[in-house]
Amino acid sequence: MLIDDLAVSADQGKNYVLIVGKENQVEYRPVELGQMVDGLRVVTQGVQPGEKIILKGLVRPGMTVAPRLVPMRQNMPEKQTATLTKADGDSESKAVRQ
Fold first, then answer.
1. DSSP, residue by residue, 39-73
2. What is the signed CA dihedral for 49, 39, 16, 13, rounded to 10 degrees?
3. Which of 7, 23, 38, 44 is the right S-S partner for 76, CB 3.0 to 4.6 Å?
4. What is the mean pLDDT of the chain?
5. Rg (alpha carbons) of the chain, rounded to whole number
6. pTM for the full model?
7. How far apart are CA 19 and CA 13, in angstroms?
8. Which spans of this chain does the record mark as coiled coil (predicted)?
9. pLDDT band at 97, cuts 50/70/90?
10. Rounded CA gap, 19 and 54, in Å?
11. CB under 8 Å, gap of 24 or more: what pairs does 23-26 form?
12. Domain map of the chain by residue range?
């Protein structure tokens, strides 16, 4: 599963996320992390598809929250075309990512 890396926190060397659980109560969830993929973090254990992960806010486990759903950010910029000018004056267009 991929999640926004901003949602991941660490405490004494252990990674965790906060999720919105039953009755909108904040729950602490230890997670195992993998690599970054296109700006998002791979979570190999600890979170299930469909769970609501808290990205920001001053919350603690056990608190009741009023969650607001936000779209998952996409860190991969769109492909853009750049024109490269060679030393001999010829130009060439290539698709690049910034």
1. TEEEEEES--TTPEEP-SSS--TT-B------PPP
2. 150
3. 38
4. 82
5. 20
6. 0.70
7. 19
8. none
9. very low
10. 5
11. 23/64, 24/64, 24/65, 24/66, 24/67, 25/62, 25/63, 25/64, 25/65, 26/54, 26/59, 26/60, 26/61, 26/62, 26/63, 26/64, 26/65
12. 2-67+75-96
* Residues 36-77: tens digit of each pLDDT: 998 899 999 999 999 999 998 899 999 999 988 888 766 544
> From CA 96, how far away is CA 76, in angstroms rounded?
11
What is the identity of the amino acid at 35?
Q
CA separation for the pair 98, 93 (Å, rounded): 15
The CATH number given to 2-67+75-96 is: 2.40.420.20
Distance separating alpha carbons of residues 36 and 3, to the nearest angstrom: 10
CA 18, chain centre distance (Å): 13
| Bridge partner list, 72 | none
The residue behind tokens 């806010």 is 57
